[in-house]
Amino acid sequence: MNEPFNIPVIYDGTEHEFKARFERWGYTHRISVLIDETTVTFEPDEEGGYRALAEHPVAIGLLQAIVARLITLSR
After folding, report:
1. Number of domains in the chain
2. What pLDDT was estimated at residue 1?
3. DSSP assigned state of 67
4. Using an 8 Å Cβ cutoff, are 18 and 62 in contact?
5. Which domain holds residue 11?
6. Residue 67: its pLDDT value, please?
């Protein structure tokens, strides 16, 4: 279940593909996405979207594009 997969995202007019990993956390889950050399962890929020947790700054527009893609994959 924790096998890596790729997330294709269109950001700034170009298509990007990021490596990701689904992680089960008790009754919920997280998705870790490798952006450049930074791992960003996306976890579900109370409103049905995802919040992003990162140690280094990542462009907000890129994070929003990834969240939009994750939401479409989870339907």
Report:
1. 1
2. 57
3. H
4. no
5. 4-73
6. 95
